[in-house]
Amino acid sequence: MSSQQSPVRALPHFLAIIMAVTGVEFFETGMVTFSASHIMAALHLQPHQFALAYTLYGVTAIFMLYKHQWMVERLGYRDFILASLGVFALGGLLCATAHGFAQFACGRALQGFAGATFFTAGRMLINQLPADKRFAGLLAFVTSLLGAAAIAPIAAAGLLSLGGWRSLFWVSLPLCGAVAWLAAGDLPSERSPAHQRSEEHWGWLVWLVLGVFGLQYAIQAIPAMIDGSLAQLLYIGSASIVVLSVFAWRQWHKDRPLINYRGLFQMRYLLGLCLYFCGYALIGAYGFMAPLLLQHGLGLSLGLSAAIMSLCFAGSVVAALIHALCAKHWPRLRLFMLFALLLYAAGCYWLSRALNSHSWHTLLMPLMLCSLSLPFFLGSVAFGTFTEVRAEVFSHAYQVKNIVRQLGLSSSISLSTTALQYFYAQPDNAGSQATAAQLESLIHATNTAQSLSAVSMASADVFLALACLSLPLALIVGLQRSMR
């Protein structure tokens, strides 16, 4: 049975496979992000330890993104995805039974190693469909990733209430089993001939891991930075960039590289990568700040906070479908991106003003505006970035895009935390000079009137900063000519 025939005979089933494979990692990551404070409190983790676990997740994810095509060439998509589901479930098992940092970090690293497969694989499976069916595959793909993000908060709240934080990870076992059962029979199993496969590059991948870890560590360590450590972080970050540059240069000169940079070196694609980074940075900042604001700024219950976030992310699903249909008939990428950035800036500015009322009802509309804006921006970037990418390097292009995604998300969370600590420590916000340690202790403590007010006011400042940062990006989008 060829990979081209199976989807044609059972299109609904194949679309269900795309949705199931794509949604696994987004669902689990969404639950962990929403429940971060509960996990840290239960395991007695300091924020920098949780950040280190996030760093290890990102490092293993980026490593596997580099090896994605290499694995597919040798295993085929069916065996590769099934093996990844097994490793992801094993990582969930380690996290669920963890009693401290080491085992939890190891479990998250395994989940990053396996989870990197699903997003790229879901997108590449669309190419198994006939050309006239691929738009349906794209809609299934987008609906799955945004739908998983929308369901994650309310699912996390329910699991936390019923079984505690460990249930967030126990659920990955039946989830992976269900996806494997659904997908095993219809995933393509073809392998590439030996003469067409990428080279091994294991020695150079050691340098890749070191470079990625150093860069991720420097980014994640910014919020916990103490006096005198800035220079050390700059050295680590600079050395990591040098190592990664040497790795890229070496790959450039390979006949069969892991990533074919020569085939990707075009202005439209490079601009798209920069816009992807900015877009995922906006998503990461919003996704990190909004639950923290609701729970620790306004003191809302876990269930109400989850319901609000799920409602907003559900709006993202609707916005993504509307954008996909509009862009198919009216492909004005620059206008959609400008509209999205202005909507995001308006939502963040509105949030910064509405927080003065300390009423969650006034936050619903600006939160929804931010949620609605992001699919219009990233959807337009997605339509524009890969237009001129040749078919033979499309997989490589998508691997690099997902590496940029991981860096954008981790950078945004780190910088958001830094900004929150800075604004929280202002005397006007805390009533007296607060310290970063006091903000960290808030994660493990019951909210007080003083801490609620301080977090609310600091969050208002962060959202105002996000609104201001959106405007220069809108100016760049308006002036560029590659994506019109």
TrEMBL record:
Domain Major facilitator superfamily (MFS) profile: 14-484
Transmembrane segments: 50-68, 80-102, 108-126, 138-161, 167-184, 204-226, 232-249, 270-294, 300-326, 333-352, 364-386, 407-425, 462-479
Keyword annotations: Membrane, Transmembrane, Transmembrane helix, Transport
Membrane topology: Multi-pass membrane protein
Localization of this protein: Membrane
Family matches, as Gene3D superfamilies: MFS general substrate transporter like domains
Keyword Glycosyltransferase part of the UniProt annotation: no
Pfam family, one: MFS_1
Predominant location: membrane
The keyword DNA damage belongs to this UniProt entry's keyword annotation: no
Highest taxon above the source species: Bacteria
Entry protein name: MFS transporter
Organism: Uliginosibacterium sediminicola
